[in-house]
Amino acid sequence: MARRKRPLFARWYPDAAARLEERGLAAQRARLLAPLEGRVLEIGPGFGANFPHYPDTVTELVAVEPEEHFRDLARARADELGLKAAIIEGTAEALPVETGSFDAVVATAVLCSVDSQADALAEIARVLKPGGQLWGFEHVGSPGRARHAAEKVLDAVLWTHLNGGCHLSRDTLGAIRAAGFDTAGMSEERFAFLPFPVSKSTHLVGSARKPA
Ligand SMILES: C[S@@+](CC[C@H](N)C(=O)[O-])C[C@H]1O[C@@H](n2cnc3c(N)ncnc32)[C@H](O)[C@@H]1O
């Protein structure tokens, strides 16, 4: 099934999100991306907020983004930074790149929004080299029963529609494990600087390894 386009989200999100960078998001990105090296694939770069934080040890960057407006903004950001990056159209569920060809895949605040986490994670595993890692941060569903039920209701009636397909209630750690990744490199944090309700969500941060 073709992914639903979300052009309105691509218009309002960049200004709203840019304000969060200096409140703490840029520091999270810098910390997350510092260890990266080699060929890197970023999925759903949006307006390219991760681009300033890639270290020189990254030898090639390819970014796959479904929204045209985000691709334009990401290309402009890469040009502004003098960063060589191929920014191409596609979705996480059908990555238009070769099997076993990347040392690392980056997805920050993307697995909350993909149509199918299982399909996206199967594709991420396909394109990584053996032993390669998925790096990212994602807000995830709460362990508490009452709060999780509230997140599910909010997703169904309002949140997902208003926020570019984002879900508050997803078990992203479970999905990453079910796709065969070793999640020892992932930890849980609170991004309290984000707006409510994601300020109250647990964030999964770090890397998950595809078996060698
Ligand atoms: C909340 S934004 C995050 C943008 C960026 N990664 C960041 O950290 O600021 C979600 C991003 O995921 C992208 N996205 C949504 N569904 C996707 C899918 N199925 N495949 C790839 N990217 C997707 C959106 O177009 C958008 O760029």
The parts where pLDDT drops under 50 for at least 5 residues are none
For this structure, the quaternary state is single chain
What is the H/E order?
Answer: HEEHEEHEHHEE
> Which structural class fits the helix and strand makeup?
alpha/beta
Q: Write down the domain tally.
A: 1
- In the CATH scheme, the class would be Alpha Beta
Helix content: 25-40%
Query: Strand order, biggest sheet?
Result: 3-2-1-4-5-7-6
Bulk shape = globular
Distance between the termini: 32 Å
Give the mean pLDDT: 95
GO molecular function: S-adenosylmethionine-dependent methyltransferase activity
Pfam family, one: Methyltransf_11
Domain Methyltransferase type: 41-134
Keywords: Methyltransferase, Transferase
Q: What is the compact description of this entry?
A:
The chain is an alpha/beta fold. It has a single domain, classed as Vaccinia Virus protein VP39 (Rossmann fold).
Protein model, in words:
The protein has 212 residues and is of the alpha/beta class. It is 36% helix and 23% strand. It is built from 5 helices and 7 strands; from the N terminus they run H-E-E-H-E-E-H-E-H-H-E-E. The model has no long low-confidence stretch (mean pLDDT 95). A 7-stranded mixed beta sheet has the order 3-2-1-4-5-7-6. The chain is globular. It has a single domain, classed as 3-Layer(aba) Sandwich (Rossmann fold).
